[in-house]
Amino acid sequence: MISERDTSLDARLIRALQRDGRATIQQLAAELDAPRSLVSDRLRALTGGGTVRVLAAYDPAFVGQTVIAHLSIAIDRAARPVARALAGIEEAVLVSCVGGLHDIVLEVRVDSNEALGAALHRVRSTPGVTEVRTQRYTGILKGLFIPRYDGVSGTDAIDRHLVELLQRDGRASYTSLARAVSLSAPAVRARVQRLLATGIVTISAVETRGALGRQLSMGLGITLGADSSDVLRALQEDPAIEFAAECIGSFDVVATIAAATSSDLLGRLDTLRALPGVLRLTAWQHLELVKEDYYRQMA
């Protein structure tokens, strides 16, 4: 049975891994002020049990995914089969069954407006889908895989092989990576650090929601007033906000908030509602995450 101490440590450990997915046990122990052996044990339990995945993702701009949109979907039948069908759409990186105004939310990443239109057609053509509302992101304020690409740096075949391996296991050792690409461990370390420093890839922790998840998660759609600076700053500074993006569509901002209890969620929602720049806040609860997959293979 997991103690309250371990639960608290797990939450802080996950946040640390979201900031730096390749932080060493020593670095994590120092940041969390906890024994190395305990940190190592909890990390092994979280990753081995499926609660947390540490993985690499290409920056959307680097792979040409310059158009990112959030779709709110209404359906006329059971949610799981429809969500699984939508998860088969290649451009969909996230699919979640939700409770609220709509039934399923989906995030798509594509390279053009034409491709977005084609993806929307596939979504609307999925049996069971009755309505799709689209919010196109104009800027990502906060997130695990926020764009950081410097716009200049590139990759070679070895870099791409390394990223492919890191997309499967973001904490793979430099020794195992070196063996896979026939280079020395120091050479591989230098390549991985360059990929991270130039923003080509980000390595972060993704926490499983639903049955294995340790936290409640809600999506937010926020309508803003003329002066929105305080709201945007609050979203960026609140540690409970996992993701936030300005957008065009039904909402001005789409965000994700997570908390350990429903009472904590309510308190944080009320705090956001009270901000002068918030005209309206709509919320939906994530019930089951069907897909979260940022894997992309470069030619």
Name the features.
about 300 residues; alpha+beta; Arc Repressor Mutant, subunit A; two-stranded antiparallel sheet; about 35% helix; globular
**How do the strands of the widest beta sheet line up side by side?**
2-4-3-10-7-9-8-5
Q: What structural category do the secondary elements indicate? A: alpha+beta
Helix and strand sequence: HHHEEHEEHEHHHEEHEEHE
The CATH architecture of the largest domain = 2-Layer Sandwich
Percent of residues in beta strands? 25-35%
- Count of runs of 4 or more consecutive helical residues: 10
Write down the domain tally: 3
The residue-averaged pLDDT reads 90
How many distinct beta strands? Answer: 10
CATH class of the largest domain: Alpha Beta
Shape: globular
Q: Distance N terminus to C terminus?
A: 46 Å
Report the radius of gyration as a whole number of Å.
20 Å
Task: List the uncertain runs.
Answer: none
Could you say what the CATH topology of the largest domain is called? Answer: Alpha-Beta Plaits
User: What composes the largest sheet?
Assistant: 8 strands, antiparallel, barrel
